[in-house]
Amino acid sequence: MSQEIKKNIMDYETVDFDSATCELLLLDQTLLPNETKIIRLSTAKEIWEAIYLLKVRGAPAIGVAAAIGLYVLSARMKTETFEEFYPQFKKAKDYLDSSRPTAVNLSWALNRMDKICLSHKELPLSELMETLKKEALLIKEEDTWVCKKIGEYGLTLVKPGDGILTHCNAGQLATSKYGTATAPIYLGQEKGYHFRVFADETRPLLQGARLTAYELHSAGVDVTLICDNMSAMVMKKGWVNAVFVGCDRVAANGDTANKIGTSVVAAVAKQYNIPFYVCAPTSTIDLSLEHGDLIPIEERNGKEITEMWYEKPMAPQGVKTFNPAFDVTDHSLITGIVTEYGIARAPYQESFLEIFKKKQEENIK
Ligand code: MRU
User: Which CATH number applies to 158-364?
Assistant: First the structure.
């Protein structure tokens, strides 16, 4: 169902819940920037496909969508006892968890729902449903707070007038609000800072062109779109003071998986002495993985490279393709990892301990 275009793409919720119909609402990101359409989902297959096909994408938004989606599926299950309900809940959870492998926020959010479910199993099912709904909406609400805090810490790393380069979309469209890598930019804009942002187009799915350039431009930010292979040139010219990127999973040693091409940007930034910052909600830090080689990397259909975004195929029929959706940036190339509890710096194992300690202390208060 196409909705009336509101003033600005920034007025839309990336992920939402319709309490009247008990449906998951998503702003379909595969159609942007040409069409603004909210889709309504209520079956496991629809939700799985929406995540797999990137109708909702970006690590935090995937987590929020999965949590609300799992509640929507739970509320529709026709069961009378917890013993009947839980196996169905678990099956739906595992199914949604299989939609994309790299962004750890997906399993993080689903595990949070599972934990709440199990710790409230004594409740009547109707009350358990309310508890699950509250948790899913809390995950969404917390994401806005997390992004704002990342923005505040990120803003301390730049000054008015700076040039900032970003890759892929770690913007509002990838989160509940503000984005992660874009949060310092939006908060700076609120303070009247003038940043000059360079957005890599981000082959092959063009999240930088279709989403980052779109949302920043709509928000009135000074943004220049470049092809991925132009970042070295703008850095060499001295136009970039800092790089901010998002991430899908950070290992315990700081190695970071983010959209394919991120590690190239990091290597080039190092060459030109430009600080390279990863913006990471703590929900994206996976301390169970010692280093980045252990992060599962999603491989997608080669047609995304050869034909998907073109009117005609742009590569010979039958040519071999390799289409990893993410790469891992070595921690040695990262200047700092900006979380909602502060900025982690090498050695990351130690710095993360401090960050998680602070998180625990603040959550106890
Ligand atoms: O394949 P995508 O579009 O989901 O990849 C998204 C990214 O790589 C983002 O940078 C990352 O998820 C962080 S979003 C705040």
Answer: 3.40.50.10470
